[in-house]
Write a structure and sequence with these properties.
It is a single chain. The chain has helices at about 10-35, 45-55, 55-60, 85-95, 115-130. It is mainly alpha-helical and about 140 residues long. The protein has a domain at about 45-130: Cytochrome c-like domain (Cytochrome Bc1 Complex, Chain D, domain 2, Orthogonal Bundle), CATH 1.10.760. The radius of gyration is 24 Å and the shape is globular. Mean pLDDT is about 80; it is low at about 15-40.
Length: about 140
């Protein structure tokens, strides 16, 4: 049975604005769900951001190393050889040179446990995505 209530006709521009608004809201929700999901604390940085700020100058923005530090995509850093605790220890305490001729690594100051865990999770995710490179390079 037809709806007897009168409705005002919507203009084409009104419909486009409604659709555009709905799409914008949907994209914002998707973006919020996929970004910053590593922490719900205000101002918390993602593992990617923390890596870029604290590690990339030596280990490369792409994790492939620089003339100051080795590639984190090297097979040497696979979890069965350098597990997460090895990464954690190197970040928190520094480490003596081994495997590479870059010198000792100093501890990284100013990171809390959540930051360190986020960096390690980022490195592991990138290793999974990119795969490992042979050693020696």
């Amino acid at each position: 049975m037809p709806d007897p209530s009168p409705r005002s006709p919507r203009s084409s521009a009104d419909r486009r604005l409604t659709i555009t608004s709905a799409v914008a809201v949907a994209l914002a929700v998707i973006g919020a769900a996929s970004c910053g999901s590593e922490s719900t604390e205000p101002g918390a940085m993602s593992g990617s951001d923390l890596y870029a700020t604290n590690c990339a100058s030596c280990h490369g923005a792409d994790l492939r190393g620089t003339d100051q530090g080795p590639s984190h995509l090297s097979i040497v850093y696979e979890p069965s050889h350098h597990d997460d605790d090895s990464f954690r220890s190197a970040i928190e305490r520094g480490t003596q040179q081994h495997h590479w001729p870059f010198g000792d690594m100093a501890q990284v100051e100013g990171l809390d446990d959540d930051d360190v865990n986020a960096i390690i999770a980022f490195v592991r995710a990138e290793q999974e995505r990119e795969g490992f490179e042979p050693y020696p390079p």
